[in-house]
Specification:
The protein is of the alpha+beta class and 173 residues long. It contains seven helices and seven strands. Strand 5 (115-121) and strand 6 form a beta hairpin. Helix 5 (104-111) packs across helix 7 (158-172).
Length: 173
Amino acid sequence: AELIDAVGLTEHADQRVSRLSGGQRRRLDVAIGIVGRPEVLFLDEPTAGFDPQARRDFHDLAHRLSDLDDTTILLTTHDLDEAEKLADRILVLAGGRIVADGSPDRLAREVAREAQVRWSLGGAGFVHATTDATGFVRDLFAQHGDAVADLEVRRATLEDTYMAIVQKEEEQA
């Protein structure tokens, strides 16, 4: 019952598997996978077919398994947003070999060293690319103080990083 609840299937617990939707079957697969609290859990595209709420619930479950139960999770996914949210370490494969290995932040910093800082001042919008976002923001506030509004610092996403890595590998091949 605890596992069924953890994957959000409590209201469907009495149904036959054949009556579950595709997304519900994927949740059941995850519940079966965590029976006995394994030390290592292999998940292949675990949220395919999940609605947004089920995906968020799964992410919470993955964090609980990893953080509280000390479960190592090996996740295969093409959903780079999901990988960025869940992974401590990313391996990028191209041509059947590992071409990048590191945390999402480290990989992004290696590929796209600049961050984009966006802000508004007196109703006007500004954008600046910098390799030292922290220093730039510190100077921005030192110069303009509370007049700075709508501040946003954007680094390369994992998708941006992945595309740059794969493009580089293809150019070298």
